[in-house]
Amino acid sequence: MEFINRQDHDTLLRATFEKYKVKCELSERMFDIFHKMTNRLLEENEKYNLTAVRTPEGVIEHHIFDSILPASLIPEGAHVLDVGSGGGFPSLPLATVRPDLKITALDSTEKKTEYIKSTAEILGLNNVSVICGRAEELTAVEKPAERIKHSELTAIAKQNPYRESFDVVIARSVASMATLSELCVPFLKVGGKFIAMKAEKALHEAKESENALYLLGCVQKCEIIKPYTVDLESDKLFFVTSKRLATPAKYPRRYNQIKKKPL
Prior knowledge:
This protein is α/β, with parallel strands linked by helices and 263 residues long. It has a single domain (70-260), classed as Rossmann fold. It is 40% helix and 17% strand. It has a 7-stranded mixed β-sheet with strand order 3-2-1-4-5-7-6, with helices on both faces. The longest helix has 21 residues, at 28-48. It is globular and about 60 Å long.
């Protein structure tokens, strides 16, 4: 296990911003939180295998810096759901740089949600809460879908504490965009924003997900945003769309159906 001191951590974090030519606007408090966040993850990862990244340099670049990048895309005061938060990314870094946000981290593994909860408490991030569960189960509609009219969807959403209750849903996942959309969009309010954090090699998924987004009630064509101007092997993209209509009650389907036959 390799810990890092505060001075070296600050230097590496600043160097990462410089590498990607992104302006660093972090406060002293934020630098301190990120230092503690890195060392805590490295320590707890030895026990719980929270991430495959096991070096300070890796945590700084691939978790902390990466998680900060979408901060400017999120409206002020939004209630944000992070689907598949894992070790707390992007939840914990976003909560650090955007204290105005209310962030909920969702993961299906209890050891991960407990880690996120305890880490937020240790770091003084009072704007973070957690949910342990499967995304497709939390927003499922119990009433048979064929008996539900579109006009009933708003009332149904009000009966479910999670369905269509978030201003922004963000996901940093290896799942395809079509699969990710069906898991995430049912959580989103009409008028809300869905942000998928993807690698540039997944660019083709934007076109392939258009049918899924349409069926789920979103604007069909994603806005594709590159968060920095340099060209590197590890280029990232954000697929961003907004929700125009309530999601039909038959979505999300069971996970084996979602995976076997994407929309």
